[in-house]
Amino acid sequence: MQSLLYGVAVLACPVGMGVMMWMMMRGQRRRPDDASAEQQLAALRAEIDILKADRAGQSTSGHS
User: Fold this and answer.
1) 3-class SS shares of the chain: helix, strand, coil, % to 5
2) Nearest to residue 15, comparing CAs of 7, 25, 3?
3) Is the four-CA dihedral 22, 27, 33, 37 of positive or negative sign?
4) How many Å apart are CA 30 and CA 12, to the nearest integer?
5) How many CA atoms lie within 13 A of 35 on its CB side?
6) Is 26 exposed, middle or buried (0-12, 13-18, 19+ CB in 10 A)?
7) DSSP symbol at 37
8) Residue 9 to residue 3: CA distance in whole angstroms
9) What's residue 30's pLDDT?
10) Where exactly are the transmembrane stretches of this chain (predicted)?
11) pLDDT for 48-62, tens place per residue?
12) Where are the beta strands (DSSP E) in 1-64?
């Protein structure tokens, strides 16, 4: 009985690691479709442009 518990304890780590790796790889397969990725990229680029314009406005008014 004691050796059975020892065997289960020894196998718990590699089995748990394998399950976690399987779940992580399964999650990576779910990629957003290209349309939503393009929309997100366009939104981020627009936000960068707004921030750059705001930063340029602050630097010109700060030096006056």
Assistant:
1) 90, 0, 10
2) 7
3) negative
4) 28
5) 0
6) exposed
7) H
8) 10
9) 65
10) 6-25
11) 999 999 998 887 765
12) none
Encoded tokens for 45: 């680029």
- Cα angle 15, 22, 4; round to 5: 10
User: CB-based contacts of 37: which residues, under 8 Å, 6+ apart?
Assistant: 31
Spatial CB neighbours of 31, under 8 Å, sequence gap ≥ 6: 37
Quick one: tokens of 35? Answer: 């349309």
Element (H, E) at 6: helix 2-28
pTM of the model: 0.42
| Residue with the two structure tokens 């929309």 | 39
